[in-house]
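Check these lines:
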Amino acid sequence: MNKIQCFIVNHSKHPLPSYASPLSAGMDLRANLDEPITLQPLARVLVPTGIFIALPEGYEAQVRPRSGLAIKNGITVLNTPGTIDADYRGEIMVILVNLSNQPFIIEDGDRIAQMIVAQHATVKWEEVEELEETKRGAGGFGSSGIQ
């Protein structure tokens, strides 16, 4: 298992993001609220976490939905996966949306999303006149079928 050193400032009243089990890929992020938020159907809200992070160059943090909130309550992360760049130093905020037909209450300390830290490559573009042909070609948006 590859472990990297990251720095975190915790201005919340809650524990640091942590893995729910030894083989979990994502760490749970918690809402850091002064009062509950009622998220109405089809509404979206920016939820503070109270944490600030610094990642090494070549890494990003991805904010993703929690599957239980999605299937049980229709709550998901709107810009999933949300990317936190290595040079961002602001508070980690989560954009939640309620895709259900029922209001949903977010309480202080609720686990609202998960965060994955991943290594990424930086691209150096080489401009060409045309691209190499492949069997798939320009086929997309379901062109390979569903079975």
User: Anything to note?
Assistant: Residues 7-119 form a domain with the Deoxyuridine 5'-Triphosphate Nucleotidohydrolase; Chain A fold (CATH 2.70.40.10).
